[in-house]
Each structure stands twice: as C-alpha cells, then as structure tokens.
Amino acid sequence: MHIGHIGHGRFRASALTAAALLLAGTVFGCTKDGSAGGGPGERAGTAAGGGSGSTAPSAAPSAPASPPSDPGRAPVTTAALPAALTGQKLGWSACKAPVKADGMYAEKPGARWQCATLKAPLDYTEPDGETLGIALIRSVAKDSRKRIGSLLFNFGGPGGSGVAALPGGDDIVKKLGGAYDLVSFDPRGVAESSAVVCRDDKAIAASHRVDSTPDGPAEQRAFMAASAGFGADCARRSGKVLPHVGTANTARDMDLMRQVLGDTKLHYLGFSYGTELGGVYAHLFPEKVGRLAMDGVVDPTADLARGTRNQAVGFQRALENYYKSRGIGAAEGTARTVQLLKRLDARPIPAGDRRTLTEHMARTGIIQSLYSEQYWPYLTDALKAAGKGDGSELLALADMYTGRDEKGRYSTQDHAQRAISCADSASRPTAAEVTSRHLADFTAVSPVFGPYLAWDVAGWCADWPVDGAWEKPPVSAKGAAPILVVGTTGDPATPVEGAKKMADGLGTGVGVLVTSEGENHGSYGFSKCATRLVDDYLLKGTVPRSGTVCSA
Questions:
Q1: Low-confidence winner among 49-58, 70-79, 491-500 (lowest mean pLDDT)
Q2: Is-contact 127 183, C-beta < 8 A?
Q3: What is the dihedral of CA 344, 348, 349, 354, to 10 degrees?
Q4: Contacts for 233-238 with beta carbons within 8 Å, 24 or more apart?
Q5: How much is the CA Rg of the chain, to the nearest whole Å?
Q6: Most buried residue, 236, 263, 296, 478, by most Cβ within 10 Å?
Q7: CA-CA distance, 155 to 406, in Å (whole number)?
C-alpha cells in the first residue's frame, strides 16, 4: 500500500470477523508476477453459461458505444471484438483456494462455487492481439424456472478480489441467488487476473515507516522519494500490465463477460469503487444496462484532490459521530486524537512482537475502525490501550487495513489499488501544490485526517510510469435503463453527497437516488430498508421513487 490512500471498498474490515459478514458489515480495501499472460489458465468443465435456463452466448462482435457526452473526458472508443473472444466457452470447474494477493480469505469456496478464466484483450485497441486471463467465480441460480440471468458483483477497492469476496457474502446475497447466477471476478491487475505486484513484504513494511505527515523539507523529500520509488518498483515488476489496468478496460471486460455468459443486458451490483466502475460501464454501454445498482457511491465530479478531500470530510464526520456516541463532544474527541498522534509522531510506543506503533499506523488503525459502527468498540479499547502506552491493539487494526498476516506477509491488494487509480486519474499534483493549495484547507476540514490526506494527493501518483485517462470518471448514460444509487448519511469513505452527484451525472431518468441513514460504508446488509429496495429492484425490476429516504 502507498503511504496513505484510503481505499474505496467493502473490504476494509473483513479481518475482524468471519467471511460471512462481508456484506453484512465488513469492509476491507478507498487496493503474481504482473505479466499479461493467460492468468491461472482455463479449467476444464461444463459449457459456457452453465446453469439451467441460460442462453447461448452471442458470437456477434460488440464494440463500446460512442460516448454519449463529454467526449473530452471519455475513454477512447475501441474496435469490435472478434468472435473468438465473444463466443468463447468457459471451463467452469471446482475452485481452488484464493491466492494471498486476494488479501482476504484463505478458505477454499464450497462445492457449489465454480471458477473459470475469461480471455480478454490485453489492449482493447488491438482486440486481435495478446490476451490476459480474467478469473471468474459463480454459483448457478437455485430456481431455474425464475432465472433472470447473471448478476455481476464488484466489491470495491479498486484492487479487491471478487473471486475471494463473493463466497464470503453468500448468506447475505442468497436471496439474489435464487433467480440469478451470482458472478464475480478479479479485475485485471488484481489477484488471479495478472496481479500487479510492486514490492516484497520487507519493502512494504519499510514504506509504512515513512512519515506520512512530513513536517519539514527533509521529511517532505523523503516522502516524495518513497512515493516515486513505489511507481518505479511497479514499472520494474509489473510494467507490461500497468498501462491496461484502468477502469474503462475493466468495464469493457464486464461487457465481454456479459456476452460470454449469454446475457442480453448486464445486471450488476457494485459497492464503493464498484459504483465508479458501474458508472463508467453505463457511460460506455448505455444500451446494455439491465438492472444496475450502486451502494456506497463514489463522487464522479471529483478529481483526485477533491475526492481525497471528500474522504477527509467523511472520516472526520465518522470520528465525530463515534465520539458523540460515547458522550464526548466532537471538538474534544478530535483534540484528544490529534494529541495522541502528535505524541506518536515524536515517540512511537511499543506494540508487541518487537514492533512499535507510529503516528502513521495509529491513524491507519483509526481509519480501519471507522468504516462501520460495528467496530467502534474495538476503537474504544485500542485508544484506551494506546493511552496507557500499549500500541498493540491499534497496530492490529492497522494490520487489518494493510493486509498483514501474523507471519508478516502482506496482501498486494493495495498495489493493484494504486495501479488502477493512477491509470485512471490524470492528476499529478506536486508537493508545492500541497503546501500552497491543499494542506491548510484539508487540515481545517479534518485536523486528524486532513494533513495525511493532503500529502497523499501529491504522493499517490508521484512519477507514475503510466499517464492517467481522465480528471474525473465519465458516467453520463443517456438512454440507459434506470440505475439505483444508494448513499449512506454516515459513510466515511464515500460520503453521502457523492450519491446525489452520481445520480445527477448518470442523467435525467437514469439515476434513481436513495438515501439511507446509518454509520457504515454502504447500506446493503446494514439497512433493512435499503437492502429490501435493492433486492426488489434486482429481482422484480421495481424502481423506487428517486429521493426515497431509508431510516431503518
């Protein structure tokens, strides 16, 4: 992971509980040789589309639609895909245990889960050229008589493994599994889909010791050098795939999946970063949008700096709500946290196993625990322990965020997160811009998270070896079917304000806004009302009134 970026993902707290809690309140992830080969290899098994009631995949070539609007921001239009790709047969077979890069579960999925590999163009401007493998997982619809088609999931990140995540949320999405083949995937650059890998465990651990809130010129130079070094490491180890891992290409992969799975329209449920992916898909393929729902919504009007500032607002709001729940005023709670971080900046404290808790890792642990109010009790215990000189509990929370296991091995999810983010974002702010434009503003918004996130604006894509595609993701989708957009009032990672902007950006008659009251990253599985609305939309096609508010 880079020194500070907050991931957009429903993955960031999963290590606290069993895998089955993934969609009911866990979040883990605002992201192996990195080659662009065929991935894990196609497995022998049943024919493509599998499952009773599935239709044969169309062999007709398909190309992304011309951008409906805003051509200056839209991804390039690519050539039609050959029938060898759109008509390919998937070899569904028993799944293996997820690889470590998945950053989540080591368990092998149960018998009803099947895995396969989709071949997709490495470069969509050369669709007849080299391919890479996209790892897929599915469970076949339980009721073939009511089967609607396939329902594709993305759980966020970017950089999260759908192959690892989907079985963990089985209990939550089982209602959807009655009428849909539940399908997820490792996006290109992630886990079993030509994972981006930049550094080994030792180098990752060293990066966490770099001061993420540099106080003077020397620390600033060290921070920027460490940031630029990460990009150089990614280019050295995963350079072949880096130019091709962006969100627009993943959206194109999703449309190829749609065709190969035999679906006329794409049905989709995206969380967090997965909402941005869904919006870009709708922009590229508005006529192919079926029942598409978003939860924990990214603000598509925000560039890198504004989006990061939004997270400063969101996490500060969550921290204040946490303190209020304990009967402590927002100002007092913020001041306590700032003082703790200042003390740790000056002198880290012991954290067990010959490790210490630094300012950076303490803040990371706090961020981890704010993704859901279910984890606020862990934060209370960890802050009390840190106040007594024991940093072990906050460090354990930070380890969950960074994907560190008990043997000191790290997930590479955050390598993929940064690679995808920087392939998307054309913004390359400098350290001078941070000090002159962002630092004071971010600090005023959030004394706890603002300085950290302001510096991350400069460090995130510093000297990145690949140019970014856009300043802001294109999501206008004129002519698309209604798209359900669900925002949560206390969401820290994707503040609720972004949901309205997404609904507006999708276009009149397309974006349908639902607001859910709660203190979690996303609403599905947390709010009975929001979960019911999403289920009714996906299963029955029932579109709620835009502006609906869920209070339970």
A1: 49-58
A2: no
A3: 150
A4: 233/198, 233/199, 233/203, 234/196, 234/198, 234/415, 234/418, 234/419, 234/465, 235/465, 237/33, 237/34, 237/197, 237/198, 237/199, 238/33, 238/34, 238/189, 238/195, 238/196, 238/197, 238/198, 238/415, 238/419
A5: 22
A6: 296
A7: 25
Phi, psi of 26 (to 5 degrees): -95, 150
- Residues 409-441 as b/e (b if ≥16 CB within 10 A, e otherwise) read ebbbbbbbbbbbbbbbbbbbbebebbeeebbee
Single pTM value for the model: 0.88
Instruction: Give the whole-number percent of the chain exceeding pLDDT 70.
Output: 84
Tell me if residue 450 falls in helix, strand or coil.
Answer: helix
Interhelix angle 413-424/247-261, nearest 10 degrees: 110
277 φψ region: left (φ > 0), alpha (ψ -120 to 50), beta (else): alpha
Mean pLDDT of the chain: 87
pLDDT digits (tens, 9 = 90+) for 302-327: 999 999 999 999 999 999 999 999 99
Check residues 263 and 7 and name the one with the higher pLDDT. Answer: 263
- Output the 3-class SS for 457-484: HHHCCCCCCCCCCECCCCCCCCCCCCEE
Cβ–Cβ under 8 Å, residues 24 and 526: yes
At 228, the amino acid letter reads A
Distance CA 12, CA 310 (A): 18
Alpha carbons 125 and 120: distance in angstroms, whole number: 12
Written as six digits, the tokens of 193 are: 């889909």
Lowest mean pLDDT among 105-109, 251-255, 295-299, 321-325: 105-109
Q: Which residue has the tokens 């396969």?
A: 116
Structure tokens at 219: 């620390």
3-state SS, one letter per residue, for 113-161: CEEEEEEEECCCCCCCCCEEEEEEEEECCCCHHHCCEEEEEECEECCCC
One-letter amino acid for residue 277 of the chain? L
Average pLDDT over residues 435-444: 97
- Across 467-534, the runs of DSSP E, i.e. the strands, are 483-488, 511-516
Q: Which amino acids are annotated catalytic?
A: 272, 491, 521
Q: Residue 170's pLDDT band (boundaries 50, 70, 90)?
A: confident
Q: Which two tokens stand for residue 387?
A: 């106040």
What does the alpha-carbon distance between residue 27 and residue 526 come to, in Å, rounded to a whole number?
12
Q: Count the Cβ atoms, other than its own, within 10 Å of residue 290.
A: 20
Helix or strand holding residue 381 (H, E): helix 376-387
Half-sphere exposure of 543 (CA within 13 A, CB side): 14
Q: Which residue has the higher pLDDT, 366 or 18?
A: 366
- Sign of torsion, CA 176 8 162 78? positive
Enumerate residues 6+ apart whose C-beta is below 8 A from 451: 213, 439, 442, 443
Position of tokens 């299963």?
Answer: 539
**DSSP, res 326:** T
